Amino acid sequence: MAHAAGPAHAHRAGRYIAQPTGYRAFHPAALPPDPPVELTGDLQRLLSAADRALGRLDGSVLTLPNPDLFVLMYVRKEAVLSSQIEGTQSSLQDLLSAEAQIFDENMPRDVDEVVNYVRAMKHGLARLAELPVSVRLIREIHSELMQGVRGGRLTPGELRTSQNWIGPAGCTLATATFVPPPQHEVPQALGALENFLHRDDDLPPLVKIGLAHVQFETIHPFLDGNGRVGRLLITFLLTERQVLHKPVLYLSHYFKRHRQEYYEHLQAVRDRGEWESWLAFFLRGVVEVAHEATETARRILHLREQHRSAITEHLGRAAGSGHRVLESLFDRPIVTVADVQGITGTTYAAANQLVGRLVQLEVLQEMTGYTRNRRFRYAPYIALFNDTPPAG
Fold first, then answer.
1. Helices 275-314 and 68-85, packing angle to 10 deg
2. Is 19 helix (H, G, I), strand (E, B) or coil?
3. Rounded distance, CA 56 to CA 314, Å?
4. Annotated binding residue at 263?
5. Domain with CATH 1.10.3290.10 in the chain
6. pLDDT confidence band for 151 (50 / 70 / 90)
7. N or C, which end of the chain is more exposed by having fewer CB within 10 Å?
8. In this structure, are residues 124 and 138 in contact, taking their beta carbons and an 8 Å threshold?
9. Could you report the per-residue pLDDT of 240-289, keeping only the tens digit for each?
10. Which listed CATH number (1.10.510.10, 1.10.10.60, 1.10.3290.10, 1.20.5.440) goes with 8-291?
């Protein structure tokens, strides 16, 4: 927005300060921005549209039978996309295979990073019951995220004690695109961000969350994993503020689709104080992704009804066991015959026969090509998350 670029706004997000060794580092101003964010015109309309879209998403997910069964797939999708923004190659199928302990030599080595992201998300959501979004929670999440992976040697859970910078490969402090605040300023900057999050004010929750995301990325408090932790923060704040009752918004899908624009908006806030332009971009993303996630919920419901009917119609006396297996597949969509035996409490032979019948009904699909150690996936369900279905 043009008005955000005037002189009054130039240092609105902070200022660059020359350091003793010659490079310039950014010192973020405390939130909220001064002058305040102008929630007028387009921004006001986008905020209303985002609130409505999230309300519809929340409603559609809460109408699903046992919504918690489905939440994990939304979380997995966000994990894959957020990690891909940082350059990982692993797909949703790779993540599901790793969780099911199917190890294929062609699987990308970085799948561990995505597994960690899911673990960090689950850990954070569980902790929110007893701990607010805070520096302590952020450090715990980082520790889960970076344990034993590329960058894991860079002190998981510890705030950085050296200067970092952002820019193309091979750049130096002098040629970096952006240099975050010096390490000794990080604890104070994070503390100020935590105070802002818990301060009583009139800012709409989505605006507050949008501001907080940029501030976290600007502080860049860790040596690695800042982008992913900053995107996890959005999910935690949405659920903590009960903007969403379940973490079913994969906003990384939008950030990945508009990756260059995403980074340009972050930088425009720092350089020119363009908070309004960032918030418009952020809110458009919320609207777009909420519609996609709502459509996914509708398709889940349709798929479940279709497969429940098929099981009731074709499985006769085994229908009860078939329904139990179907419900479990929404949470864990890759199974073995032994898993099915555990779910149904039947003999191995009966479980094997049931799996065969579910394959005939095209509920399950064998995925290894082996005769032993076979694994079966709920392919139609996984497909709903693999590519975002067109809204409609």
1. 130
2. coil
3. 35
4. yes
5. 8-291
6. low
7. C
8. no
9. 999 999 999 989 999 999 999 999 999 999 999 999 999 999 999 999 99
10. 1.10.3290.10
Residue 4 pLDDT: 43
Q: Where along the chain do the CATH 1.10.10.10 domains lie?
A: 315-386
CATH architecture of 315-386: Orthogonal Bundle (1.10)
Quick: pLDDT tens for 14-58: 999 999 988 999 999 999 999 999 999 999 999 999 999 999 999
d(C-alpha 176, C-alpha 89), whole Å: 25
Q: Quote the CA–CA distance of 290 and 345 in Å, as a whole number.
A: 39
Is 220 in the active site?
yes
Strand locations in 120-255 (E): none
Tokens 């349709």 -> residue:
302
Confirm or deny that 226 is annotated as ligand binding: yes
Of 259, 289, 313, nearest in space to 388 by CA: 289
Q: Is 220 annotated as a binding residue?
A: yes
Q: What is the number of other CB atoms lying within 10 angstroms of the CB of residue 238?
A: 22
Which among 213, 220, 253, 265 is annotated as catalytic? 220
